[in-house]
Amino acid sequence: MTKKATTLTDASKDPLIGKQFGDYRLTSILATGGMAKIYKGMDYQLQRQAAVKILSQENIDNDKTLTKRFQREARAVAALEHDNIITIYQYGEQDNVYFLAMKLIKGKDLAQELKRLKRSGQKMDIKRALHIMEQVASALDYAHQAGVVHRDIKPSNILLDDNDKAILTDFGLVLRASSETTMGTAFGTPRYIAPEQAISSNKAVPQSDIYSLAIIFYEILTGDTPFGGDSPMEIALSHISDAPPPPRSRDKNIPEAAERELLKALEKEPEKRHRSASEFVQALKKAYGLSADLSAPARLPATVSYTDSLALPSEKLPKAKPAREGRSSRKSFLLLLALIVLLGAVAALVVAGGNNRFIPASGEAAGAPIVLSYDDTTFMMVNNGDYALNVVTLWFIRGDEGGGDDYSGDRFKGDVLPPGTCARVVLERRVAPLPACAVEHSREILVDEPSLFWRQESRGDSPYGQFKVLYDGRLIATCPTVPRGGKNECAFSWPVIPTPAPEDA
Fold first, then answer.
1. Statement to judge: residues 185 and 211 lie in one domain
2. Residue 149 resides in a domain
């Protein structure tokens, strides 16, 4: 017998928590993304938990094709029966709310693990890294042979359980854009996007996913992605026209053979990359002198295009010119084309009310006033500056790192905190009104009462009197914790982002 859903009367709670969708009652929020929220759900008949993806109603209103894409995502992934691809339990629509129930993976994602290693000054063991890459490559090759290109391969979409089993998730961008989408629309995550995909999403092919996988391995080896910048536009332009810095320029311990394979996977033209993800990982294993015993599926042609309704258009990219022929004119043309394309994408996002992921020039991004306001059941961060903050590398830590009290800024909606808004973390049992906030950008509801980084709880004989605020591994503030029943505030300035020196012509 199914338990009756709890009626929520507290306006501070997420209105969906406690509601039943299909076989699952939502119990807490796991994550918030640009298009959807992920909740933890419980099927009381089977006593099975699930991660339940709920489409944002605001985004549905702004994008009439979103529900159709969401349905196609469910169908596409449900057809992919692979040990390293997320398992779909249920899909449906209820009271005009679209949901997708998936297997709940207990662990962390690769992005969180890489951040943990970076904060501690470590790099991932190469055997462990290749073990993870091998699993993801197997999943990608399987999906590619089924006519599905992921188009958003990045560390946060690779889940790791406690035994380092890798699960590929978030197939929200696998499908062909609608007929109303212009060729200038670019989908994906800027730091990991392939050049052809940065120009136009419908140019994505299996080798686009291989390029993104190579960016991840580059990050694992060197500690950072090859291209950075102050805005997604700047990063995407680098993918299109700039050569990636050789990995050995950042770490001389990387074997030359591994560098060659990485740079091959990062070629600008898809047909110059490896024919499959498994071929790429096998080559890396050989470069490190490890057994290349990966069971690779049948190899794909150098460039593959699909006409399946669950995949992408059948257009192939034009053949590249010889390496040195017309290099500067080609680069200028690509830069101009990409600038037009990406400006169009930016305008579309602004009109549609999309997440503000754009940060102004670094000289303007210094010293935004930040206020943390918290009591024993609510934590709130307020951006009093006049530009959006990229909070992906923001961390709040009480006690030892990795001690269970860490909280990362990438849990905020869209990985950013726009100007004049706040982000909240709220315990479900809170009954008092929330602290004032002009515009709430994101909120995470905690059903259970875990160890909270901002509270003055005791561990053994020593109470935690403070917590640290880190940005990109640097300590930017130390704030007092709050006792039960108390209130506190902590104010500081956002760190200055140095302006990079101009490159030589």
1. yes
2. yes
Total domains, the chain: 3
Are 54 and 134 in a shared domain? no
Residues 301 and 339 in one domain: yes
Separation of alpha carbons 55 and 484, rounded Å: 36
Amino acid at position 145, single letter: Q
Q: Give the SS3 label for residue 482.
A: strand
In a domain, 12, yes or no: no
Same-domain pairing of 222 and 74: no
> Are residue 134 and residue 263 in the same domain, yes or no?
yes
Is 152 known to be catalytic?
yes
Catalytic residue, chosen from 63, 109, 152, 376, is: 152
Q: Is 355 within 8 Å of 413 (Cβ atoms)?
A: yes
DSSP string over 168-179 = E---TT-SPPPT
Residue with tokens 């903050």: 389
Inside any domain, residue 196: yes
Q: Give the pLDDT confidence of 237-264 residue by residue, as tens digits.
A: 999 999 999 999 999 999 999 999 999 9
For residue range 255-302, what is the model confidence (pLDDT) as tens digits? 999 999 999 999 999 999 999 999 999 999 999 998 755 444 333 333
CA distance 99 to 17: 13
Does residue 394 share a domain with residue 303? Answer: no
In the block, tokens 């029966």 appear at 81
Mean pLDDT by runs of 10 across the 505 residues of the chain is: 34 75 91 80 90 80 72 80 92 87 90 91 94 96 89 92 91 44 51 91 89 97 91 89 95 96 96 96 95 45 32 31 43 54 46 35 58 92 88 84 71 84 86 82 75 75 80 88 90 69 39
- End-to-end CA, the chain: 71
CA distance 114 to 152: 18
Give the SS3 label for residue 130. helix
Distance CA(39)–CA(53), nearest Å, equals: 6
Q: Tokens 């958003």 sit at which residue?
A: 152
Give the CATH number, domain containing residue 389: 2.60.40
Domain shared by 265 and 323, yes or no: yes
Strand extents, DSSP E, 136-262: 158-161, 166-168
Confidence (pLDDT) at 123 = 93
